[in-house]
Amino acid sequence: MPEPTQKTAGGSRTEVTTQTVKTGVQVKWQQDGKTEKTVSQTEHTKRTVIVDNKVTHQEVFSAVSGDSKAKVGLKEVGKRKENNVIPPPPGEDDDESSSISTPPPDEHSRSTERKDSGQPDDADKRDNSQRSTLFIEKPSGGTVGVGGDIKFVAKVEAKDLLRKPVVKWLKGKWMDLASKAGKHLQLKDTFDRINKTFTFEMQIIKAKENYAGNYRCEVTYKDKFDSCSFDLEVIAAPEASQAFDIRSAFKRREVKPEEGPEIDVWEILKNASPNEYEKIAFQYGITDLRGMLKRLKRMRREEKKSAAFSKILDPAYQIDKGGRVRFVVELADPTVELKWYKNGQEIRPSAKYIFEHKGNQRILFINNCTLADDAAYQVCAGDEKCTTELFVREPPVLVTKELENISTYCGERVEMECEVSDEEANVKWFKNGVEITNEPRSRYRLKVDGKKHILIIDEADRGDSATYSVMTTGGQSAAQLQVDLRPLKILQPLTDLTVNLGKEIHLKCEISEYVPGRWYRNGQLIHGSDRVKLFHKGRNHRLVIANSLVEDGGDYVFVPDLYLINIPANVHVIDPPKIHFDSLNYPDNTVVVVAGTKLRLEVPVTGEPAPKIIWSRGDKWITELSGRIRAETYLDHGLLVIDSAEKDDTGTYRIMVKNEAGEAVAHIKIKVVDIPDAPLAPDVTEVGEDWCTMKWEPPLYDGGCPILGYFIERKKKQSSRWMRLNFELCKETNFEPKKMIEGVAYEVRVFAVNSIGISKPSMPSKPFVPLAVTSAPTMLTVDGVTDNSVTMKWRPPDHIGAAGLDGYIIEYCFEGGGNEKQEKPEFTDQELDLLVDCVSKNGPSICGALSAKTTKAEKSNIWADIQAKVNAKGGNNRSIADLKKGWNALKKQTKNKLKHSKKESNVEKAVLPEPKKDLSALEKRVEEMLQLQDLAGTPDIEDDLQEDITGGTADKPKLTDEELNTLVNNIAKLGPQLFGAQTSPADKDKMWADIQKQLNALGGKKRSIEEIKRAWNNLKKQTKKKIEHNENQKLLESKGQKAKLIEITPIEKRVQVMLQNKEIFSEDFQEDPDKAEEWIVANSDLIDKTRFTMTGLPTGSKIFVRVKSINAAGNSEARVHPNPILVKEVIVPPKIRLPRHLKQTYIRKVGEVVNLVIPFQGRPRPKVSWKKNGSHVDKTQISIRNSECDTILFIRKAERSHSGKYDLKVKVENLQDKASIYIQIVERPGPPESVVIEEVWGENVALEWKPPTDNGNAAITGYTIQKADKKTMEWFTVLEHYHRTSATISDLVIGNEYYFRVFSENMCGLSETATKTPNSALIEKEGKPYKRPEYTDFDFTEAPQFTHTLVNTVAIAGYNATLNCSVRGNPKPKITWMKNKVVLMNDPRYRMFSNQSVCTLEIRKPSPYDGGTYTCRAVNDLGEAEVDCKLEVKGGVTFFRLLMQGVPLSVIDSYMRELDASKQERA
How confident is the model over 304-359, as pLDDT tens digits? Predict the structure, then answer.
């Protein structure tokens, strides 16, 4: 609806806008009830009329649309004379002339409306492109009278803004009012933190008539922009409007103040200092300081009369588009050269720009003005110039020929045409209100032919049906486009088909229109694929399906696009029956089912029509009523059901399918599987500290599938909770449980696992207890060696375990061969008897039925027990190898006798004699052992003994030729590095490890590095022997004798070449002492100590020593001494290793402890002697303690007499070593001698003294001098660490008399006393001597007097009580406390102390007994004084309870008094 009433200036253009509900509605405009031809605009539902004629007084306009009618009134509010001169802006005073002017309001509004009706300006363009709603409150137009005030307010929401937006207040198009702020214009902005809004205000003060016009407020924030225009109307008084002259505003005139004296801010600013500009601006409300400074600078220019121009250009000109404008200036000097400029660019004469000269006038004509001529123009004459601005108006463009409605069919070409009033008009096309652009890819083409504008659509479709409109700056036209479909005809319909499976399906139809379509099968859309092809060519449509399937049968329909027509057809596909068992992916057509579960075997079948399915097993048919095994039939599959499968259900089943097209048969195997049986009870073969080794046999029945592994569980014997040990299956039939508690009995059991599940647990194993042998003893060292004994010492094992430590076994063996070994006597009868007895007891474990299950460690323990018993019996330190040799010899002897007896009996062919008659008692017992060995069927015990004797390895064969070749190849490559001295041991170990990997990969025998080294040594020794033998034989052959050469194998030849390398030739691996031929037990019984001496050793022999720790679990690993020990006492020369701090004088203070530890070396044990100053040390004052490796000199309390030179001598046989130690015992020095005042002058005193007679056995390092005033006798230090024996003391106070004293100082500190000057030094004033008056000394002595007496006190039983008083007196009095006139002494319940003349008696936890009269007595030489008080102790349970209940003390006191009175009355 249009606004009810609008006000406008007389003669100006006005726009009236209304809005309809729908687009395309015809609207007619009427003026005073009559239809008028007016310029109208149409934009969607908006209808605008532009009134360009003059409005007189008031007129009424109406908008008529059908039965609806809306009215609006126009009223004239004032008239203005048109002029090209612009009045000053609101910021300028009326009495000031301005070089920049604005057009009057009516002209400006007319120009603005012209701009709005025609081509939009730059601001409007920016509004359309970047428009965003920033304003939440826009300034609205207003009316104000002349001299009145008005305020315009704009608000911007700040919730989404990070900083303050930029706001501009403009008048008209270009004038920024920020630079005009002053007396009549004020700009202000505030921020509301609560509502988050910015408020911008523009206030016009004392408005004038030339302030009226159009204003605009622009706000900018980053890429957002918003603008709002509003009008200001200034109403003048009636008498003022009649006599108003616009030109009078440019004349200077005096302004009469209306109310009081008016202050001119600009005059104040012109006369003020620049430092006061900010203060004045703040005082008078000027916010735009930059604009103020620009204006002030412009005002300060002296307005000089132009010397070049006698008449300048007007401030502004206005012309219609296509018109001609004339610029005229008049020169004062016609000879001056004149230049014209447009926007700073010089204008040259042309058909558009014409220059004329008329006397002193210079004229510029601009023909055919366009919008491009709207600019600023400037004319320059020498150094002077004048400017103006040209405004070009554009007339509106009208639609002279309307668009027409069009109806057509799809695919036709459509052209919509209209005509406008201007050939260069800017015309916009719209489709349903959306602008149509002329883009290259657009289906719409826009064509312009003069005033004709054409919209072309080449191939129209139904989507082009819409309302199309064309819009110009002065008019609008719209029309409807309707695009319909052509009628469709079916030229060839689809036909029904019957196709065999796998053949091609081909459907074809033809229609009358060239439109696409869609194919459907059973209502589902068909999409093209590799098998399904869709073809469309012109009117023909085809569907081709290659290799038809059963699923391809059904009802097919073709539906053309855009038409509601269906073309149907039916396709039927037939197929012989088939069994698709392979699709189930059963290997070998075998179905595996778990026993006890239900089997539902679905076998897919196909066939058209649906086939009949028959199941059978052997000759027996399976039907739906067969019971536990039954068959079910469905359309697409056959089902075989077995309820609760059993082991007997395993077998071959037959399925047959049959229909009209044929039949098919398939055989299926069904296998029933189950969990395995439980394994047998496991056996624990070996136990350790927290581990054991167990093994078991596989279960008898594996459940029909392979055993995948085993689960192992364990539990404590006393517990019922089993714990699983492995979460990953154990593939082997042995396992090593770990992390058990040592000393606790355990049981283990095993589960077997196959693909079906886990079996039942096996029976538990026999209980076993993990026990570990201790670790090897540590730090085995030689403690001493003599000619026939070796003493070893060691540390206990690092880890002992739960079995504890029973003791140690020390063993030794001789290095080298039998030559260096001690010859031992033959076995005695007692020893042999004991040996046979022990072997017979342990026979089953050594050579009987249990020998195969007995480990080597257990056998070693048995032989160790036998060794201990035999050595304890005979005392010959026989080794285990000796015992085994003795047993072998006895056994061979027995066998030989038995064989000899058999031979004799066979020769004589007589009755077999009894062999027992020739055998001794021992040999008969051995015979029993041999019979036991034959019955058990175990390996001969001799094999095991031979292995222990020779150190061989029975389980690993010798290196093969292939392995030897590989070993020799590697040593040939790595020989210089492997045996070189520059190669580190770690690198050598890596090389041997690489060789070990190659050999083990080749032979798979798991050879150890020691075994490989031993094989190389044997090969090298064997080669050396052969080479030496052949060389000796060649020498014999050269002498003519017969030689016997030994053939050298190819490997030995290669070794012979390698032996030419010195490093390889000389390198031999030392045999491990653990693998020595014979170890001798040194101690028959276990020992607890970690030190042992082996006696009876041959002098000069070398032995290896090892120590084992023994507990209930057995022997630990042996700790072997790394080097052979020579059994011979070696003399080590004595050597004193004097500590560094004893190589200089050792200084200690008197009374300190002297403890000197001096190590030395020597073998045998050296003799140590001490001397002091050449004489033997007095052992009553100095303690001397000697050991095998050091000597200690100890003085408990040092004295000065202990100072001196101490000589130490260490002697071994004829060898000796000496050392001297100087000890100095020091103390504080004595005081200096005879300190004398030598001279006194001015403020100075000269002192001299002698050094002390006793320097404290140390050099005097300095002196300390102190002074004291005779009046106070307080000593102050003057000099410290002074080295001379004379000093001058300065800066003394005149009139004072001083005493001086001196301390001596050494390294121990100051002397205990000081030497004082006998006389004092008086510091007199120079000049006339001062005679000091004599005064009698004041007597400060005073008898004791109490300044604060004792106060009677009431105490609570059980809480400490204190009595306080203060006393004075000189000399200080002695304080005595009394109770009931009895002196308190040595009573722990009373504590007496005094501080600063305040005497206190503290009674700890008093009782009623402590009540009484207490007296404090003070006594000195001048008299005594006493003061006393009474102490009453109230307590007991009743008093305490009253106090805890909060009863006041006064009430408690009165209550206790009444209680005492009642007790006395009763008494």
Answer: 567 788 888 888 888 888 888 999 998 888 888 888 999 888 898 998 899 988 88
Tell me the C-alpha distance between 765 and 763, whole Å: 7
Please, are residues 284 and 269 in contact by the beta-carbon 8 Å criterion? Answer: no
**Closest to 1123 measured CA to CA, from 788, 777, 780, 778:** 780
What pLDDT, on the 0 to 100 scale, is given for residue 1415?
95
The residue-averaged pLDDT of 1113-1127 equals 87
Q: CA separation (Å) from 1320 to 1232, 1239, 1240, 1274, 1331?
A: 18, 11, 10, 14, 17
Exposed, middle or buried, 762 (CB in 10 Å: 0-12/13-18/19+)?
Answer: buried
What SS3 class is residue 1418? strand
Tokens standing for residue 555? 């009802």
CA of residue 113 relative to chain centroid, distance = 68
Alpha-carbon gap, residue 591 to 597, rounded angstroms: 13
pLDDT band at 1218 (very low <50, low <70, confident <90, very high): very high
Higher pLDDT among residues 470 and 1436, named by residue: 470
Q: What residues are paired with 249 via a beta bridge?
A: none
pLDDT band at 520; cut points 50, 70, 90? very high
19 or 85, higher pLDDT: 19
Q: Which phi and psi angles does 150 have, rounded to 5°?
A: -145, 145
**Helix, strand or coil, per DSSP, at residue 563:** coil
Residues 1049-1074 have a mean pLDDT of 64
Structure token pair of residue 339: 């230049």
Contact present, 173 and 215 (Cβ < 8 Å): no
Residue-wise over 130-139: b if at least 16 C-beta within 10 A, else e? Answer: eeeebbeebb
Kindly tell me if the per-residue pLDDT of 584 is higher than 60.
yes
Nearest one of 416, 420, 432 to 472, comparing CA atoms = 420
Measured at the alpha carbon of residue 1391, what is the angle toward residues 1385 and 1392, in degrees to the nearest 5?
Answer: 80
Query: pTM of the prediction?
Result: 0.31
Strands 68-76 and 5-8, by their bridges, are parallel
Q: Which residue has the tokens 């939440």?
A: 136
Q: What is the pLDDT of residues 418-439, one digit of tens each?
A: 999 888 788 889 999 888 888 8
* Angstrom distance (rounded) from CA 681 to CA 696: 7
Find, among 417, 414, 516, the residue nearest to 460 by Cα: 414
Specify which of 835-839, 953-957, 1037-1041, 1405-1409 reaches the highest per-range mean pLDDT: 1405-1409
Cα(1224)–Cα(899) distance, rounded to whole angstroms?
Answer: 92
Confirm if 477 and 417 have CB atoms less than 8 A apart: no
Q: Which two structure tokens, joined as six digits, stand for 187?
A: 């700009």
Residue spans of alpha helices (H) in 685-828: none
Q: Is 1267 helix (H, G, I), strand (E, B) or coil?
A: strand
pLDDT band at 545 (very low <50, low <70, confident <90, very high): very high
Record the tokens describing residue 24, joined without a space: 């395309």
With helix as H, strand as E and coil as C, how does 1119-1188 read? EECCCCEECCCCCEEEEECCCHHHCCCEEEECCCCEEEEEEEEEECCCEEEEEECCEECCCCCCEEEECC
Task: Supply the pLDDT for residue 43.
Answer: 56
**Mean pLDDT, range 1008-1024, rounded to an integer:** 79
- State the pLDDT at residue 929: 67
Tally of CB atoms within 10 A around 1416: 24
Q: Mapped to the 3 state alphabet, what secondary structure does 1032-1097 carry?
A: HHHHHHHCCCCCCCCCCCHHHHHHHHHCCCHHHHHCCCCCCHHHCCCCEECCCCCECCCEEEECCC
Whether the Cβ atoms of residue 1456 and residue 1439 lie closer than 8 Å to each other: yes
Full 3-state SS string of 519-550: EEECCEECCCCCCEEEEEECCEEEEEECCCCH
834-862 burial, b at 16+ Cβ within 10 Å, e below that, comes to bbbebbeebbebbbbeebeebeeebbebb
